[in-house]
Amino acid sequence: VQLVESGGGLVQAGDSLKLTCAASGRTFGNYAMAWFRQAPGQEREFVAAVSRSGNTTYYTNSVKGRFAISRDNAKNTVYLQMNSVKPDDTAVFYCAAELSLFSTEYYSTAERSYDHWGQGTQVTVSS
Description:
- By secondary structure, the protein is mostly beta strands.
- The chain contains no helices and 11 strands.
């Protein structure tokens, strides 16, 4: 599966932004999906994950209550709705996919679990 992110940009603190990850291929529904981010000078970190069904989601503590991950399997797309953004959210955001054939509710927070990655989209939050 190939992944292409979009929707990044320059926003002010407190604003909202919606990232989109479009996936190619006919088997998108077999993949657990996640968003990671990498701030300047830092390692890439987990942000949010969604299971194949879309019914199970998980967030890193710093974005709980502000970000929402969702997916539309009919459109081969996963989203990250970002609300009340902060300057600390400034990073390159990556979409990732992991084949998950044995469970519709599986997800992972580990970067090493994901074998398909997008090129990233820059999000910059000004104070």
